[in-house]
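Shipment paperwork, digital attachment
Item: protein structure file
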Amino acid sequence: MDCPDFETLFAAQLEGTGEYAEHVAGCPDCAAILEEHRQLEKDLFRLADPLPPADLVARVMQRVAAEPLPVRAEMRVGLSILAATLMAAVLSFVATRGPIGLLGASAARAVVAWKTALWGLNNAVQVVWSTTAIPLTVSLTLLLFLSLVGLRRVAPPRAVEIEVHP
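Attachment content:
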């Protein structure tokens, strides 16, 4: 029997039975080819994807920063967001409060309500300041200081470049 082509031989090896299994048992050339193929498959399965370089993110961010978007594209995106937001606001008002004619009256009521809330907040701040100004100032300063110290510990140190001129 002549040796079969490689694809037939490999397919027969997967099945594990048939006339080609007998041929491989008696033919040293086909047995060597099948063993080499098995070793190659085993080596290929052991290969792992290589890890990306350690500075990949830094290089990508450097290239992104080097090529900013044109102002026209940023303006188009900003105007699209503004238009979508205004449309959503108007549609939500119409869906919940009635006709569009009431939009001005509703906005005026909101301004009056905010004015009253801000006036009340101003009075509350004046009362708190007049009664507990020093303890409040000290506690807020301490809180700010502790927050800044905590942020400094969390933030990575800045890299400082030093130029040496000969």
